[in-house]
Records
---
Amino acid sequence: KEFALSGSEQNPDITAKDRKAVLRDRLLGKGAPAPVQAFLDHGADFVTARTLEDLVGKMNGLTGKSLLDAAEVRRQIEARDLQLANPYSKDSQIQGIRNARRYIGDRLGRVASPHRILDPEAGPLIGVRLSVLTRKTLGGIQTDLDSRALGPDGTPVGGLYAAGEVAGFGGGGVHGYNALEGTFLGGCLFSGRAAGRAAARETA
Ligand SMILES: Cc1cc2nc3c(=O)[nH]c(=O)nc-3n(C[C@H](O)[C@H](O)[C@H](O)COP(=O)(O)OP(=O)(O)OC[C@H]3O[C@@H](n4cnc5c(N)ncnc54)[C@H](O)[C@@H]3O)c2cc1C
C-alpha cells in the first residue's frame, strides 16, 4: 500500500484527476497502480521477497557484493517494529508518521497505516536500490538585480551574467530560506529574463 500511495505521478487515477477511481482502486482496494506495479515486476533496481533473509540475499545480489548482513538488518527492523507496538514510542520516525497521520488528507492519501515491517500480512518485502544525485545546488554565484555576476569585492564582473539555479534562484533566496518544492522554475525564469534584458541594454 505504501507503494500505491507514494509515486502519485505514476498513478493514472491521480494524474487523470479521477477521484472516484482513486477512492475505489487505491484507498479501498489493494495493490499498486499498474505503472508502479511495473516497477516491481520489471524494474532493474527493485527486488521483492517474502522473507527478510531472501530479500537481503537479493539486495546483495543487485550489487554483486555482500554489503548487507541479514542478521544485522533483522536486528534493526525488529527493534523498529517493537517501537511500533509502543504507543509512547520515542522513535522519531514513528512519531513523524503518527504526526503526519493526524491530518486526514495525509492519512487517506499519503501515509499507509503503520504496521510492522515484518508483519507477513503486509508483505511482500520490497528493496529498492537508490542512486545518489545532486538535485538542488542552491547556487553559489552572487548577482545583482540585473543578474550580473559579482566578484569577491561585490562589484560586477564585466560581461558575465548568472541566472537560475547557479545564481541561487532554485529555491532558497527569493522564496525564503527553505528550498520548497515547486518554487525553483519561477525564480530561474525571472532571473534569466533580468539577465537577458540587462545584456540587451548593455549591448544596445
Ligand atoms: C528531479 C527534479 C525535479 C524538479 N522539480 C521541480 C518542480 O516541480 N518545480 C520547480 O519549480 N523546480 C523543480 N526542479 C528544479 C528546477 O528544475 C531547476 O532548479 C531548474 O531547472 C534549473 O534551471 P537552470 O537553467 O538554472 O539550470 P539547469 O537546468 O541545471 O541548466 C544548466 C545547464 O548547464 C549545462 N552545463 C553545465 N556545465 C556546463 C558546461 N561546463 N558547459 C556547458 N554547459 C554546461 C547543463 O548540462 C545544463 O543543461 C526540479 C529539479 C529536479 C532535479
---
Amino acid sequence: MNDTLAGVRVLVTGGSRGIGRATAIALASTGATVAFGHHGDDAAAAVTLAAVQSHDAGAFSIEADVSVEAEAIEMVNHAIEGLGGLDVVVNNAGVLHEAGLLDTTVEAFDAVIAVNLRGTFVVGREAIRHMVQHGRGRVINIASDLGYLGRERNTAYCASKAGTGAMTRAWALEFAPRILVNAVAPGPVDTDMLGAEVMSETQRQKESDIPLARIGRPEEIANMVTFLAGPQATFITGQTYGVNGGSVMT
Ligand SMILES: NC(=O)c1ccc[n+]([C@@H]2O[C@H](COP(=O)([O-])OP(=O)(O)OC[C@H]3O[C@@H](n4cnc5c(N)ncnc54)[C@H](O)[C@@H]3O)[C@@H](O)[C@H]2O)c1
C-alpha cells in the first residue's frame, strides 16, 4: 500500500462525482484521512463515500452549498472537527454555464461566480484561518485551461477560473512560507461537466483538439492534486499546473 499521505487530513469540495470523487479516492488510497463536501447529489455522494471508506474507514461526507457563505463555513468547521484538524483543502466544486454574452443575465453570471470563485474564496479563507493557527497547510484550487484560453459563450466560467488562478497567487504570497497554495488547471476531462446536459455539441467538439489526442480522465487530475498535497511538493507555491494533454502549453 502507498501511504505517502498517512496522517494528512484533507477536505475536498464537490466530491460527489467527477474530478472531486477521483481526488477523494486517490488521496485516501495514499493514506490521507478524507472528508468531502457535496451539494445535493446524495446517491452519487454515497458511491464516493463507499469507495473512499474502502481505503479510509473514517472518511465522511458533508452536505453544503459552497455558494452560501454560512454553509461553506460550517462545512470547513465540520471537517476540522471530524478530522481533528486540517492539513489540505482541495477547492474543486464547480459549475459551468454556457450562454452567449448578450444572453448572459446578471443572475446567471453571479450564480457561476458564487460557486466557482466566491465558494473557493470562502472555503479557502476558512481553511487558511485554521492553517495559520497551526503554522502550516496546503491549498489546492481547481482552475481550468479556459481561465487562460477564454472561450466564447462561457464568460462567467472563464472569468471565475481566471480569478481562481489570481486568487491562488495572492494567497501564495500572503501566506508564504508556511502555507503552500497552488492550482491545477485541467483541460477537458471526462466528467458530467462535459456531458450533453451541460455543454452543447459545438462546445464539446472544441474539447477534442488535443495534442495527446484524447480527453483526460478524472484520475489524471487527481494524481496532480495528490502530488501537490504530498511530501515531494515542498518547494512549490503560487503555481497553476496544466493537466491538459497539451491543450495549453506555457
Ligand atoms: N471536466 C472538465 O473538463 C473540467 C475542465 C477544467 C476544469 N474543471 C473543473 O474541475 C472541477 C470539477 O469538475 P467536474 O468536471 O468533476 O464536474 P462535475 O459536474 O462532475 O462535478 C462538479 C462537482 O461540484 C459540485 N458542486 C456544484 N455546485 C456546487 C455547490 N454550489 N456547492 C457544493 N458543491 C457543488 C457537484 O456536486 C459535483 O460534485 C470544477 O471546478 C470544474 O470547473 C473541469
